[in-house]
Amino acid sequence: MSSLDVGMDCSGRQCGYGEFAGDLGCTDGGSCFHAEMLQAKESRFHDATLAKATSQINEIIASIPDDPDGRQLSFLHTPFGTMLAWVRHDVEVPEEAVRADSSPDQVISSLGLLDPPQRAY
Fold first, then answer.
1. Is residue 47 in some structural domain?
2. How many domains does the chain have?
3. Which terminus in the chain has less CB density within 10 A, N or C?
């Protein structure tokens, strides 16, 4: 899967997530990003170890088959950390959906988070 496959559907600043009826859909927000790690030249903050890890993570992501239901593999940024999830871009997300800015208990429950940190980021 490459960023060309997704286009700008899940660009982060414009895309968020909403959980409803056991599914995730794209909303406004900035909490949902296309699942791909950016590669950068080596620097003090992105050294050879991180550059190698980035390549390895992208290889793993590229090995994941496309979803037969047309959902897009995405990184969800929650108050507790980041997770991989399949997100729909072809559904209307109801107002009552649980979103990144919902209560911590709702986010934990709706996403099925196991052992989230005691403190949100």
1. yes
2. 1
3. C
